[in-house]
Design brief:
alpha/beta; Aspartate Aminotransferase, domain 1; 13 helices
Amino acid sequence: MSTLTQRDQKVVWHPYAPPQADPLFGVVSAEGVRIRLDDGRELIDGMSSWWSTIHGYRHPAIEAALKDQLERLPHVMFGGLTHEPAVELCERLVSISPDPLERVFLSDSGSVAVEVAIKMALQFWQSRGRPERRRLLTLRGGYHGDTFGAMAVCDPVTGMHGLFEGSLPSHLFAPRPECRFGEGDAGTLDHDFEAFERLFMENESEIAAVILEPIVQGAGGMWFYSADYLRRVREICDRFDVLLIADEIATGLGRTGKLFACEHAGISPDILCVGKALTGGTMTLAATLVNRKVSTALGKNSPGVFMHGPTFMGNPLACAAANASLGLLEDGKWQPRVEAIGNQLSAELEPCRSMPAVADVRVIGSIGVVELREPVDMSIIQPAFVEEGVWLRPFGKLVYTMPPYTIGAQDLSAITRAIASVISNHS
C-alpha cells in the first residue's frame, strides 16, 4: 500500500464505501484514455471516470478554454449577474436538445439537476392550482441520484437507498420494461405498457410527472429497453397533460449513439436533465432544460420565480469547459467513433455469454455490459482488473464498460480481454 493510500485511509471517506476504503489505488496523473498510479502502473480507463471523460483526459481544447477563462473570470455569483460562458452554454444546449426545450437552469451535479426537475414539476402544478399533483411515476430498476428527492425515485428494492425509505416521499413505481431495445417484441411491449398504463390511470389525478431514464437504465441495472415503450409513455403523458422528465445524466451527449437517448424514440420531454459528460469530465456541472409550458407556468403564476439557487450556479470555469466539450461534439466525429466502439464491444464481449457465470451480454452505443448470475466480490475483482492493466468499476452483478469516445481499437480490446479473463478466473 502506498503512502498516499495510507494517508487517505486515515481521513477520507469515499463514495459507497466504509469509512476506510479498501481496495484503494492512488492516481498521480491522467492523459488520453490512461490513468497513472502512484506505483508507476498505467491503466486503460474503461469507465470514463463514471461516464464523464468522453474526450479522454486533458483534451487540449478543454484545457485551453479553462486557462483562458481562469485569467478573466473564474467565478461570480449568478444572482442578478450573467456572463458570456453561461449564456453561450445555454444557447448551445437549447440548439442541440430536442425541440421545443428552450430554457436552461444550471446547477452543480446530476443529482441536483434531478432535484431541480422534480421541484419544477411540483411547482408547476402548484402554480396551476393543482397542489394534489405531488407524486411522481417512475420505473423500477431506475437510478436518479443520491440527494433526497432523487433517492425517492430510485428503485426502492434493488436500489442503493432502501435504508432511507421511511424518510422519503412515497412515489409510484411501474415494473421495469422487459421489452429489449431493438428487438421489436410486440407482445412483451404490450404487456409492459399495460402495467404502466394501469398504474398511471389509477393515480392520474395525483401524478405531477413521469420521470425516467430514456432507453438506458444506468446505475440501477444497465438495462436497455424499447424505444417504442418510451414513445408510448410520451403519448399517455400528452393525453392527460402530465409532465415527462427525461433523466439524461448518463445517456445524454452521445453515449447511446444518439446525442440524446430520447432521439431513439423521436420524442421530447417537458424537462430534461444533463450532466456527467457536459464538461468532458473536467468540472462539475449539470443542467435542467424545460419547454415553454413549464417556464411560462412558473414565471406567470405565484410566486413567479423558481425557488432554487445554487451558490456555484453557472460557474464560468465550468461553463467554459462545457462549451469547449460541446464544441468537440459539434464536429460530428463522435458518432462514427461511438458506432465503432459499439460494434467492437458486441463482437468481443459476445463470447462471454457462453461462460457459466454469465447471465446476459448487451451493448448499446458505447456501453458494454456483462451481467453475471451472482454479485461480484469487489475486494477480489477490482484488484484483478488493475492487474490486467485496466480500470473498471463493477457493481452488483454487472461488469460493464463505458470508455471515452476517443479510445482506440487496441485499447478497447485490452478492456474486453480483461473482462473475459477476470470473469473466467474470478466468478
